[in-house]
Design brief:
By secondary structure, this protein is of the alpha/beta class. The chain has a domain of 239 residues: NADP-dependent oxidoreductase domain (TIM Barrel), CATH 3.20.20.100. Helix content is 37%, strand content 14%. The strands form two sheets. Strands 4-5-6-7-8-9-10-11 form an eight-stranded parallel barrel, surrounded by five helices. Strands 2-1-3 form a three-stranded mixed sheet, with no helix packed on it. Helix 9 crosses helix 10 and helix 9 packs antiparallel against helix 13. The relative contact order is 0.19. About 20% of the residues have low confidence. It comes from Lasiosphaeria ovina. This is NADP-dependent oxidoreductase domain-containing protein. InterPro entries: AKR (IPR020471), NAD(P)_OxRdtase_dom_sf (IPR036812), NADP_OxRdtase_dom (IPR023210). Keywords: Oxidoreductase.
């Protein structure tokens, strides 16, 4: 399966500097060379899902934290989606492949400033229960409240945990069992009672091979919005034809999570355009590891990095977030976490200056052309 839980490799991020320019010490750890990110907020309108009336309810306001830049049209567009949702950070912490370190890393991510946590019920690549342990510890220690966090997990079609067809004879029964387990694993009550808990977003990890099975699972997921503890629905590893099938049945997702790279359907441009037109959040993974040739060598990335005195990867992240891409970050290094979340403040301050605004505008135009937006 073309899965978003494939291992994310640490990437060396060499700083790009001109002459004697230096990176601010507060923003860079000299023992590593890595990019840094800071989110700011824009608004989106998302229409909650309804199966009981042919007349859709009025749109509700939903905020999605994004780094500003350009028009951020994909983040600000109005559209409909499955569920009202909560604040979605521009960078989310990804928990795949963390194994027995999951709880400690989730806790550290929250401690250093991450407010979005992405996990999954699939035990082969995630430990959802340990993710919940890390979240509960952070809440118990007073680092955050539940309302501060955007918690997102996934239902995985064909998950081995629900392979027993006598116990789970239908797709709907598999969905219900998976989500009930996720709510228990991610409960913030601390006493095992998940009755008052909720998921900010529940993502279908991938479509099924057959559209009818995908629609059956999607309908079962949608029944949980919002009464079943789910505020919004998303789908991952998805192509445009599948999205059109979901939309044609009146239930488009609130979020799409796909691999973002040139080799993957040309920057996933058709899916991103579809999302932008409907106000659907686009979450990208492999944004660094899948694009080394671009962010490490492209002149327009270097222009931003040199002028703002930040690493190349920081400039790349700034450009990604400026077009509304929510980045999944799976680092296991606490220093990297701190640096990554410290980041775009320097770029934002630089862009506010006349000289910075000019360099940014020219580089941003080239970037948008590269990824199929111009």
């Amino acid at each position: 399966m073309n899965c978003c839980c494939m291992p994310l490799l640490e990437v060396s991020r060499a700083p790009a500097l001109l002459g004697s320019a230096r990176l601010p010490l507060a923003l860079v750890n000299p023992s590593r060379r890595r990019a840094i990110i800071i989110p700011i907020t824009v608004t989106r309108q998302v229409r909650p899902l309804s199966f009981t009336s042919s007349t859709p309810p009025p749109p509700v306001r939903r905020r999605t934290t994004m780094a500003s830049g350009g028009t951020a049209s994909s983040a600000a567009a109005a559209g409909s989606g499955a569920g009202a949702g909560a604040d979605m950070p521009a960078m989310m912490y990804g928990t795949a492949w963390k194994k027995d370190q999951t709880a400690d890393l989730v806790y550290e991510a929250i401690r250093t400033g991450f407010r979005g946590i992405d996990t999954a019920a699939m035990k082969r690549h995630y430990d959802e229960a340990l993710t919940g342990d890390g979240i509960r510890r952070a809440i118990t220690d007073g680092l955050v409240t539940r309302a501060d966090l955007y918690i997102q997990t996934k239902f995985t079609p064909g998950d081995d945990a629900y392979a027993d067809r006598e116990q789970y004879p239908t797709i709907a029964s598999q969905v219900r069992a998976s989500v009930a387990s996720s709510l228990r694993n991610l409960s913030t009550a601390g006493d095992g009672d998940s009755s008052g808990d909720y998921l900010d977003c529940l993502v279908m990890h991938s479509p099924y091979a057959r559209d009818e099975d995908t629609l059956a699972a999607w309908a079962a997921l949608a029944e949980l919005v919002p009464a079943g503890g789910v505020r919004a629905l998303g789908i991952s590893n998805v192509t445009l034809p599948v999205l059109e099938v979901l939309a044609s049945n009146g239930n488009p997702p609130s979020a799409v999570q796909n691999r973002f790279r040139r080799a993957e359907r040309a920057w996933d441009a058709d899916v991103r355009r579809w999302c932008a037109a409907r106000g659907v959040a686009y979450q990208g993974f492999w944004t660094l590891t899948g694009n080394r040739a671009e962010w490490q060598t492209a002149p327009f990335v270097r222009h931003v990095a040199d002028a703002a005195a930040v690493p190349l990867a920081t400039a790349w992240y700034a450009l990604l977030q400026a077009v509304g891409i929510v980045v999944l970050n799976g680092t296991t290094n606490p220093d990297h976490m701190r640096d990554d979340l410290a980041g775009l403040r320097a770029v934002a301050e630089w862009r506010a200056e006349p000289a910075g605004a000019d360099v940014w505008a020219r580089s941003f135009a080239v970037f948008k052309q590269l990824i199929g937006m111009e």
